Amino acid sequence: MERLGFIGLGIMGKPMALNLLRAGFPLTVHSRSADPVAELEGAGAAAADSPAAVAGASDIVVTMLPDTPDVEQVLLGDSGVAEGARDGALVIDMSTIDPEATRRFASKLGEQGVAMLDAPVSGGEAGAIEGSLAIMVGGPEGSFERALPVLQTVGKSVVHVGPSGAGQVTKACNQLIAGATVEAVAEALVLAARAGVDPAKVREALLGGFAGSRILEVHGRRMLAGDFAPGFKARLHRKDARIVLETARRLGVPVPSFEAVADALDRLVESGGGELDHSALVTLLERESGTSLRSPGRS
């Protein structure tokens, strides 16, 4: 097995790193927070004090970070991966970031003989824990084949979709569909409740028809229960919404339905809901309509 490095042990990164360790990969880790590093050390990983040190100890470096500037700093900044990586190393960035920036990072690393894949994921914290993530990969075919044992350890569906940046474009499409569907489910349930129809029964009926979806099943249940403990935080979907909109505008593609979702995410985060699950979008509709899903038809 190749030696792995893992940088970024947050909600998604920590369980992914644990799954790699349990699969037998020699693992070196680094993160801004000390607690998850200590947990991984306790499970058998080595700790490094910088991204450069991780790269120096690894053949393949995996990054799972919040946003584009974080990835740039970790890869190309002071004491970054580029400083420690040897010729022939591979970087797998599993963060969700801007596709154009991804291509730039891959080009910079390539100048020193380091290959890069963009491999963002879908499936949330549960998928990270279960090792059942959907992974969409951009980058060279040879690097993809090399990375497969790593990716198949943390993901159930692994698809190579094209050259550098293609994985991030695919993730933007995923977030467009997911966001629009969460909003549609919220609107439908609030509409039913306002009309005096039990939204739980509406959800049950819709799950058996063409409108049925995983989002209606999981997030519909969250909305009905008022359970917004984060699986995917609203502030992170807001960040992803920015990537979707910037990519669409750069390419001249209208995304009118998603613009409404992006606006709703802005309002949710600005009202203090950034740490809630993105299914909390329903709370905006409840407030604006004067209707609670827990009290159908009553304001």
Describe this structure in words.
With about 300 residues, this protein is of the alpha/beta class. It has two domains: about 5-165, 3-Layer(aba) Sandwich (Rossmann fold), CATH 3.40.50.720; about 170-290, N-(1-d-carboxylethyl)-l-norvaline Dehydrogenase, domain 2, CATH 1.10.1040.10. It is built from 14 helices and nine strands. The chain has helices at about 15-20, 35-45, 50-55, 70-75, 80-85, 100-110, 125-130, 140-155, 165-195, 200-205, 215-225, 235-250, 255-275, 280-290, and strands at about 5, 25-30, 45, 60-65, 90-95, 115-120, 120, 135-140, 155-160. The protein has a six-stranded parallel β-sheet with strand order 3-2-1-4-5-6, with helices on both faces. It has a three-stranded mixed β-sheet with strand order 7-8-9. Helix 1 packs parallel to helix 7 (about 125-130) and helix 12 (about 235-250) runs antiparallel to helix 13 (about 255-275). The radius of gyration is 20 Å and the shape is elongated. The protein starts with a strand and ends in a 10-residue tail after the last helix. The model has no long low-confidence stretch (mean pLDDT about 95).
In short:
With 299 residues, this protein is of the alpha/beta class.
> Which architecture of the largest domain per CATH?
3-Layer(aba) Sandwich
Rg, rounded, reads 20 Å
Low-confidence runs of at least 5 consecutive residues: none
Largest sheet: 6 strands, parallel
The percent of residues in helical segments reads 55-70%
- Mean pLDDT comes to 96
What is the end-to-end distance?
A: 60 Å
Please name the fourth-level CATH homologous superfamily of the largest domain: NAD(P)-binding Rossmann-like Domain
- How would you classify the helix and strand content by structural class? alpha/beta
Tally of discrete structural domains: 2
- Based on the structure, what is the oligomeric state of the protein chains? single chain
Helix count from the secondary structure assignment: 14
Beta content: 5-15%
Strand order of the largest sheet: 3-2-1-4-5-6
CATH C-level of the largest domain: Alpha Beta
Q: Describe the global form.
A: elongated
Number of strands: 9
Order of helices and strands: EHEHEHEHHEHEEHEHEHHHHHH
Write down the CATH topology of the largest domain: Rossmann fold
